Amino acid sequence: MTQKVNWVPYVSTVSDTLPISDTTTPTDAVELAEVVRGCYESETAIYPIGGGTSLDYGLPAKRNGIGLSLAQLSTVIDYPARDLTITVGSGITMQTLAETLAKERQRLPIDVPKASQATLGGVIATNFNGPRRFGQGTVRDHVIGIRAVDGRGLSFKGGGRVVKNVAGYDFCKLLTGSLGTLGVITELTLKLKPIPDSFAIVVCSPSDLNHAEQLLAALVNSDTTPSAVELLAGPAWGANKHLAGDSSSSNALFLAVALEGTEPEVAFMIKQLGTEWRHEGVRSHQALEGQAARDLFADMQEFPSAGESPLVLRANMVPSGTTRFIDAIQTLDKNCSIQSHAGNGIVLAKFSEFPSAGLARTLVGKLQAVAASARGNVVVLSNPGGSEMTHQSVWGAIDAPFELMTAVKREFDPKNILNPDRFVYVS
After folding, report:
1. Domain 198-303 adopts which CATH fold?
2. pLDDT at position 406
3. In Å, how far are 64, 151, 247, 285, 411 from 43, measured between CA atoms?
4. Euclidean distance between the first and final Cα of the chain, in Å?
5. Is residue 387 pLDDT above 90, yes or no?
6. Which of 3, 41, 315, 376 could make an S-S bridge to 347, C-beta 3.0–4.6 Å?
């Protein structure tokens, strides 16, 4: 018997970003699969929608289709807390998940902006990782089981509900970062970690980017074990009330190191890091604890989506290339605000104005070349103006086996109806 699907007009900003006039909100995975099967038969494009916080990520959608909301797939399916695992629907928000886990003094150490809106499935699909990726790993490291529906409306799964599970193909890693183009994620099983007893952030102001590079290199041999290593630059951080900067200066530069553990462990690391920094020429530093540390970390977590910017870029490279890349950005826009997960070679840049040379010339001609010299790449996270959004400007010169990737795409989505033409596949 065919189940009734809940179709409603989509009147939010989603319709301004995606070429859809309607959305459907299935109540469970069975109903969702039925919707996808219908779209497969009619060759109707499907745009999966989680919290709607990253809809402008990827190439602009051009093919008319429907929105597929995962909002109703938000239940906690199984939570054996003593096993440090949880199974939930993909539509659960990151904030709801965090609140559920906190009752057992547990967490998923993935920090994303707009946690009250962002859904777990969306975070997996975009492979979004925040500051704690340095010490706690990436989101794909915490996904141990996954269920999804492919482009024909067929359900499939990978992994399981135990940590040591090696059965079948590694669909967990395959779907992470696939932007909803291989399957619509319906259920996830996560590996969790306990919430540490103590948390602090130690901050200093390097004299310049060369000094920052010296301090970052020294952290490799530090006797501390940071959970996050953040290099913060530009006006947004100069104006931050938790940092002792000059709000009028575009030259603000801070190195913030987050420390977690037992109270004695964190106390030791605060003292040890201060000693190490003095040997590296740091004249003064501050240790934020309690609410001040949590507030600064929240600012770092929200940075990618806070405020407005005409262009937001993300670069990935070997860590030793981050300061050189930041210098290249500041040469183009001295008022650009930057957050770098420096220990991982990730740089997030929010431009103060759209590059006068244009997006293609700025990226392809300048920034992508700097990133490539550090074995990296640059992608566009947000470009509200929408100009010059070509495959190369959005995804960069990715050194990847496109023929193999496209072949995998065709196996999972033979009619190209799942988020069509928005990802890296060559059509």
Report:
1. Alpha-Beta Plaits (3.30.70)
2. 87
3. 11, 10, 53, 59, 16
4. 37
5. no
6. 315
Q: Tokens 């709000």 belong to which residue?
A: 247
Residues of the chain with CATH 3.30.465.10: 1-194
What's the gap between Cα 126 and its chain centre? Answer: 6
In angstroms, rounded to a whole number, what is the distance separating the alpha carbons of residues 256 and 244? Answer: 12
- 100 pLDDT band (50/70/90 cuts)? very high
Residue 77: the pLDDT is 97
Question: Which part of the chain has CATH 3.30.70.2190?
Answer: 198-303
Q: Which of the four CATH numbers 2.60.120, 3.30.70, 1.20.1300, 3.90.320 does domain 307-395 have?
A: 3.30.70
DSSP 257-281: EEEEESHHHHHHHHHHHHHHHHHTT
CA angle, residues 413, 415, 417, in degrees to nearest 5: 75
pTM of the model: 0.91
Is 80 exceeded by the pLDDT of residue 359? yes
* Alpha-carbon span 258 to 201, nearest angstrom: 4
pLDDT digits (tens, 9 = 90+) for 113-151: 999 999 999 999 999 999 999 999 999 999 999 999 999
Rounded CA-CA distance 299/239 in Å is 12
Residue 124 φ then ψ, to 5°:
-65, -45
Please give the average per-residue pLDDT across 328-350, as a whole number.
96
Q: Which residues pair with 201 in a beta bridge?
A: 258, 288
Q: Which residues contact 16 (CB under 8 A, 6 or more apart)?
A: none
State the DSSP H helix or E strand holding residue 373, giving kind and residue range, or none if neither: helix 368-373
